[in-house]
Amino acid sequence: MWFLLMLVILLTNGMSAFGLKMIAGWGLPETVKYPYLTVWYAGGLAAIALPMLLKGMRVGKTELFWGGVAGALSIGGQIAMAVALSSGVPGHVVFPIAIGGSIFVVALAGRLVFGERMNPPTALGVALGFIAVVLLGVS
Amino acid sequence: MGMLFCFLGAISFGLLGSALKAAERRKANAAGLVISAYAWPALIMLVRTLLLKSGDHVPTSVYVIAVVFGICTAVASLAFQVSISIGKVTVGWLMMNLSAGVPVVVSIWMYHEKLTTLKVVAFGLVLVSIFFLSWGQVIEKRAIASTSAKGE
To answer: For B5, which of A23, A40, A84 is closest by C-beta distance?
Structure first.
């Protein structure tokens, strides 16, 4: 199960932002990204909501609250990166810091807040993955 | 000033991963959480689009790829949320970020982008990292199985 989930994350999340790159390649106006992102979010929302509604499941207060927190933090991160880029910091500096830094914060929270302990191969995998993500951001 | 916002971005995204784990600890339904997390930005983007009034024609193909990649992202978010209930949040979050290598590979194939030494090294590290993460997961699973066998 865990391996399948990791494979799904790797392939689907990896391709998630590729649409914006395709649109950029088509030479369409910059404003097209807004209707694109509206349908992008709505499509994702419908893909999860429809099966859930058919099963008669409902979204409770806990999900609404934490979903709102997640949404706010996601938008906050995007705005912070946009401001950094518009301030003249190059992309090969912004992306590795923002993405690499987020892994560091999650690892810290995982250990200190959620009490997750890593065995040596996992710790080595995380360390190498961290370097790989930073290199991908730089390249 | 720009660098400060780089670090604020890192903290914000890091807290996002941690908030999703906190939600999991509070038994939030994974699908419900993804729906809620998508509903807010969908609404914001809809308002932004309606306020735009640009009058630019949007080709149907744009909407088609938006739906396809939107579904991809939602599936990834759901898989991440389920994965952190059976595995570590750090590993799940790392995998979400390692996935950045996939569009780089597709771009090299589709747009004939240059394969630099840096990219080769990064891809190599991604593969080695996934190997060690999988190894760690196998060890952990065996340890849990052995602990529960001793307890019986």
So the answer is: A84
pLDDT one-digit tens code per residue, B2-43 = 788 888 988 998 999 999 999 999 988 899 899 988 888 888
CB contact under 8 A, A74 and B41: yes
Number of domains in chain B: 2
Q: What is the pTM of this model?
A: 0.84
- Mark which of B61, B86, B111 sits at the end of a domain: B86
Residue B54, pLDDT score = 67
Task: Write down the ipTM of this complex.
Answer: 0.83
Output the six-digit token pair for A55. Answer: 């099963």
Distance from CA of A24 to the nearest CA of B (A): 11
Domain that holds residue B41: 11-86
Tens-digit pLDDT profile for residues A77-95? 888 888 888 888 887 788 8
A110 and B19 within 8 Å at the Cβ level: the answer is no
B53: region left, alpha or beta (phi > 0 left; psi from -120 to 50 alpha): left
The separation between CA B27 and the C-alpha centre of its own chain, rounded to angstroms, equals 20
Question: What tens digit of pLDDT does each residue of A51-76 get?
Answer: 888 888 888 889 999 988 988 888 88
Interface A-B, measured as beta-carbon pairs within 8 A, has a size of 433
- Same domain for B105 and B82, yes or no, is no
- Could you give the CA distance from residue A84 to residue B43 in angstroms, rounded to a whole number? 25
- B80/B107 same-domain check: no
Of B30, B61, B86, which marks where a domain is finished? Answer: B86
Contact between B14 and A40 using a beta-carbon 8 Å cutoff: no
**Chain B hits for A23, Cβ within 8 Å:** 62, 65
Are residues B142 and B75 part of one domain? Answer: no
A114, B89 contact by CB (below 8 A): yes
Domain-located, residue B4: no
**What is residue A55's three-state secondary structure?**
coil
B149: pLDDT strictly greater than 80: no
Residue in B closest to A102 by C-alpha: B14
